[in-house]
């Protein structure tokens, strides 16, 4: 392996645009790339634009009638088939939707190719992480499931064990669904409880199909969960499962929407906790998968204050050139923020927090709702992996 890292980026991904009233504003992608450049990270990581995913690649996950429907909606948005999740309030149809969705998917698939071939250890596609798309339907702002497609490509290339870690505030339902019965894939999702948030799935009892018992891991946390509780849950479940599963590649999704400023969810996370989670995923890839790590973006609707900072930290971690959390955001970036949005950007790469969490081995508190959630997940899944809850 070369030891190099790669950032998958094409300016065209900013065309993934559902319109001015939609919360998934593509300016979040542009502002992230401008912040990456402002810190000089584009000189520390290989920036590569991949081709759009073709039909045979998209068909690794998505069914042909659905692909045909996306193409039709891309040409005739007013005729989008809402029965397939297209043309809805969540996922409006727009001209060129197929092309830009395939472009985003192509970046994730190419990153997976590069990692498996040994060209790089790490690849990042922060325009990706569109984890809600189903094999035959769009869902939750997601048209093509680039995360699932990247994993499917790894399996096609010969990978025998791929671990997927999803830290988005929403359940990674589309990826779980794609590999529900595939014992080669371990999907782990840490998310807000489905009682209070879309998509309404992701309970601990969802542990995989008959052919892959324990292949799906869900850690649903109550609204209002803090940094310390969230990081405790992540570390109380993920490391032991990775050690037991022995993945050859780690794919992680880093939605920024668990942040306390995000308008669409109800967790209380800081940028600093989210950065620590990205660092942990990087470390786990080195510990368990010889450094093979594909890192993706995801949700995130505080498009100026949160998303660009988190994903710039993600790129910096992958580049082995971490940005000091206390660093000031460069003036050139703040000017770009104002030019693109007529708003002011955040001045620091931190929310000023230094989260610490109790290790699971330090004891279980039955009165703590997060501890009860952690234990429910461990009890549901651990026995399938030969582990004690």
UniProtKB/TrEMBL annotation:
This is Acetoin utilization protein AcuC. The keyword Ubl conjugation does not apply. Signal peptide: none annotated. The keyword Mitochondrion does not apply. One of its GO terms (biological process) is acetoin catabolic process. It comes from Streptomyces radicis. Keywords: Acetoin catabolism. Belongs to the histone deacetylase family. Residues 22-316 form the Histone deacetylase domain. It comes from the Bacteria.
